[in-house]
Amino acid sequence: MLRSSRTRGSILILCATSLIAQTASAQRWKVQYFYDENRDNFFIEDLAFPSAKRGIAVGTIHDELGQSNKTKYTALLTSDGGAHWTLEPLKDHPRSVFFLNDSIGWMVGDNAIWFTDELGRNWKKVGNQKKGDKKIGPTPPGGLITRLWFLDEQHGFAVGLQKTVLESHDGGATWTPVEEAAKPSASPAHTSYSEIAFDGPKVGIVMGGSVPPRLDDPKLPSWMEPERAIRRRQIPTLKLELETHDAGATWKSSTAPLFGDIAALRLVGVTGLAVFSFGESFDYPSEVYRLDLTNGKNQLAFHAKNRRVFDCALFPGSKAFLAAVEPPGKLNTVPIPGKVKILTSMNLTDWTEMDVDYKANARSVVLAGPDPDNQWAATDTGMILHLEK
Questions:
Q1: In the beta sheet, which residues pair with residue 124?
Q2: CB burial of residue 143 (10 Å; 0-12, 13-18, 19+)
Q3: How far apart are CA 127 and CA 107, in angstroms?
Q4: Which member of 86, 180, 299, 356 has the greatest number of CB atoms within 10 A?
Q5: How far apart are the C-alpha atoms of 363 and 380, rounded to whole Å?
Q6: Residues 103, 117 contacting (CB under 8 angstroms)
C-alpha cells in the first residue's frame, strides 16, 4: 500500500529524531578535571580547545571566604586531550581567550591584551598607547575590551564597553576604531558590544546592546528580593548588530528593540546561533535563536522554563550543542550551583538532552572544541567535562 507524501515525510522526521536521540544517548559528558584544593574555588572564565589535544581554561582561584590576598589568576593547560592538566599563573585577571591554532592565541585581561605562541605557557603584553592620532592601545582606560577575534596572526578585532569595536593589522600592537560601531544613537555609557564571531576570513557578526538605567533597578540581588525580582517587568532594550562580508573592510550596522541580553554567539557560513538571557520576570530564563544572514530573519531554536542556556557550539551540517544549567529553585539567577545540562541537535530545531556526569554542578558553563566529536565544557565551579563515546 502506498503512503501519502505527508505520511512518508512524518515517518522521515520521526526516524531522524530517533537517530539524533540514539546518537546523543551513546555519548556522555564526563568530568575530566575538578579543582578541589582545601578551601579554594576555581572560577573558570573562558575555555579554548583549538585542537583535539591542546586546550586551555582561564580563571581565578580564590578561597571560599573571599580573602583578596589569596586570589590567584590562573591558566589550566593540557596537551593530551585532557588526560593531564597543569596550572600556570597569570599576571592579569582573564576575561576571555581566543586561539588561532593550537599554539597562537590572545587573552583579554582587565589591564591589557596578552599574546602567547605556546598555548598559554607564557604570555607577553601586546600593544602601546599612541597619542595624537586615531590609534589607541589594546585596552583603553577602564579595561573596555571584553572579547577578541583574529582572522590571522596580524588581522583582528576587539569588542567591548562604551560602543567599542576596534581593528588591528599588526597582531594587536595598535588598534583603530571601527566607525560603523559608533553610528547607533545610543549612549556609550550604557552600550556595549559583547559578542563577536566569524566563519572563515570573510563573514563576521558583532552583537551587543544598550541598557539604560531604570528607576526600578534593584539595589539588591534578585535572590535577596525574590518577590520584587519576579514582579519587575522585563522591557525591550536596544540590540545592536554589525555585519561584514568582506573581512571587516566594510560593516553594516542595524538596531532592533529586543528582550534580554546577548550571552553567546556562533557562526557557520551565513547561519548563526545566538543565546539571549532574561531576568526573573520573563517566562523563560534564556532563548536560543537561529540567525540567517542572507535575509536577516531570526527564528526561535530553543527555550525551556527549567534550562538557563549559557553557551552554544555550531558546526557545518547544523550540528549544535547547548550548555545550560537547571536552576536549583524558583529563581533562575540564584547564586547556587545547579545541575549542568547539555543538549544537542542535528537541525537546530529538535534538541535532545545528553547524559551528563551527575557530579557536574555550576552557575555558568562554557563550551569549546574543534569539531563535534571533540568537545569540552568548563564550569565556574572548577570542572572540565569531556564528551565521550
A1: 115
A2: middle
A3: 13
A4: 356
A5: 6
A6: yes
C-alpha distances (whole Å) from 130 to each of 63, 111, 136, 139, 174 are: 39, 17, 6, 12, 8
pTM of the full predicted structure? 0.86
Under DSSP, the state recorded for 4 is: P
Which grid coordinates are listed for 132?
A: 595624537
What are the grid coordinates assigned to 72, written together?
590567584
Q: Which helix (H) or strand (E) holds 48?
A: strand 40-48
Residues across the chain: 389
Residue 8's contacts (CB-CB under 8 Å, 6 or more residues apart) are: none
Q: Which of 45, 145, 134 is nearest to 126 (CA)?
A: 145
Q: Which amino acid is at 250?
A: T
Q: What value, to the nearest 5°, has the Cα angle with vertex 386 and ends 380 and 389? A: 155
Cell representation of residue 185? 544613537
Taken in order of first residue, the domains within the chain and their CATH numbers are 16-127+135-388 (2.130.10.10)
pLDDT digits (tens, 9 = 90+) for 227-282: 554 555 666 688 999 999 999 999 999 999 888 899 999 999 999 999 999 887 78
